[in-house]
User: Fold this.
Amino acid sequence: MFDTSIDADGIAVIAWNIPDRPVNVMNETTMAGFRDEVEKAIADDAVKGVVIASAKEDFIAGADIDGFLEDLSVEALLPQFLMFDKVGRAMETSGKPFVAAINGHALGGGYETALCCHYRIAADNPKARIGLPEIGLGVLPGGGGTQRIPRMLGLQAGLQMLLDGRKHTVAQAAKMGLVDEVVPPEDLLGRAKRWALDNPDATQPWDRKGFRIPGGDVQSAKGMQLFPAANAMGRERSYGNYPAVQAILSCVYEGCQRHIDVGLRVESKYLVNMIRHPVTKAMVRTGFFEMTKARKLKGRPEGIPKAKIGRLGILGAGMMGAGIASVSAGRGMDCVLMDVDREAAEAGKARAAAPLEKRVKQGRMGEAQMAALLDRIAPTDDYAELEGSDLVIEAVFEDRAIKAEVTKAAEARLGPDAVFASNTSTLPITGLAETSARPAQFIGIHFFSPVEKMPLVEIIRGAETGDAAVALALDYVQAIGKTPIVVNDGRGFFTSRVFATYVMEGVAMLKEGVAPALIENAGKIAGFPVGPLEVVDNTSLGLSLAIRRQWKKDLGDAYAGHPADDVFELFVETLDRPGRKAGKGFYDWPEGGSGGKTKRLWPELGRHFPRAADQPDVEEARRRLLHIQSVEALRCRAENVVTSRADADVGSILGWGFPMYTGGVLSWVGQTGAAEFTDQCNALADRHGPRFAPPDDVAALAA
Ligand code: COA
Assistant:
């Protein structure tokens, strides 16, 4: 587990090298091993100083996250954490210098191990990330991070680091003072040993007499100003949905007023509670394991060689087409960007260039890099240019006739193995594929807007889509650095169908006379970035109305109708308030839609939807907005539109910002409890209609 050696100068190197694991991780076994190595080095009189290093590419990737899913008791967990505190304090106070030689990733407990050292040297490794990302998993940096970081950086900078959970590059880490020195990789060990030899009396600042936290202690005037503000900001960001936020604030507030030994014990107790918390389990399962699996294409059909997309055709040079061209060219693909005439295609290329120019101005991209990327986008109006494409994605108007025309024209130019994809967000793939001469090679690749920013891509398998097309689409999505889910065909597929229920429910509440501000706040308190009424304004009420009308036309008598339908009709047809672009929808957008900050709910809403005497409390409204989406997701699961809980959870979090604390739209059912969820939905169905009625066997569907 550890490669330990002692050189002629008496410097011991303890190099982490955990067998059978891709990265060095900290669990009960590896921690006990580390404790033994540290104790041996401290006890050995021949050892003058100790370098903590790694024999793998990373330094230490932190706590073994596999263990977070186990159901361990307080009695099993607490001794482990207290043991680590003891090892860390032994390193700090043994009288021998300890140096961290950070060669690669030093994350979570890995970086906290480095914090127990008197000095931290990092190799100049562009891949390495350094930081305390625990909050992203619902836990707190419990290996001493909440105690050592504020004592090192000061309370304000420390809290910021603990609460934002960022992973920093080596250069950033050096700038922030997280590492003391950066050296070329080949010099790392030598330099670390030298430092140990030169600093035999090293101590930690907090063990020196008269130590004060830089910038002021907790009880200083500054500290007293900081905590109420930090509490309020934490609350504003988390609405109490993320218990780790409060736990971190408490650890720093309580622990940093006392000696570090007491502070570490305070931290360990909070950590035990966080690790056992259902929110942590949900966040770890979906946010770490399922997302990693999705990125690694765990569901890719087997036995099909990996595809490399060298040439990509994009039909339609609008916002979506330009975005697709930009991200694909950015990953080295030659893109043919086609539109009805050359001018429109050129305009599409200019659209792709605009955000890049901004990045260059901000210094986040080099001029040469931008030029090379744009060189790979060839605007054209000639289908002949598509020849040689491995994949063609159409992003033309949501109109079946236009899509049929471009499908035929493009397919005539494609080789036998090439795949044709539609980026439709509303039209079922199986229907579109009817116009294709090769339906097995016809697939849906649904991007989200803005393409450059949104991490998810929804791949839709039509009734006739073959495995080879699915594999190629997955390989493409991976190549552009996004996360895919694969779903089966259906109206609105998975993501648009489920997200629509959030929006529609908000509008239904408005119609019932629920106070508009309550609706919007309930959405935010539930954890969505934007309230449901604002979402409709942003995407346009006209679009919502058009989609509902299309569904009604397609489904005929089977169309169930929704209370929100009349509201869309009223706002678009009668009130002429079609949404943000027009400057008016459910909100007034004073600066023609651009000034989001100056918007306000339209004061006349109350005249059209008189306030009901009986207002729901905000918790009831929050639950309603979450449950309606989970019920729809359960139906998607029952209809096999989505084929696993993992896809539903990952798709909901990355696709439309379903809140992370839930673990995703199906995990939310489990977190509520399947029986409880069913009862609550039945009660909602009695009050608001059958759209809340859960399908049979909720527990099995959500499992
Ligand atoms: N515990 C358990 N397994 C871990 C792990 C951890 N802390 N960190 C990484 N792994 C595993 C991954 O699951 C993956 O396993 P697989 O190969 O079986 O799929 C493997 O190590 C490699 O990780 P991967 O994410 O594919 O490699 P990468 O080079 O893209 O990223 C890291 C490496 C370390 C940056 C990334 O894995 C990461 O961020 N890990 C979590 C770090 C963290 O949050 N630590 C604090 C824990 S409280």
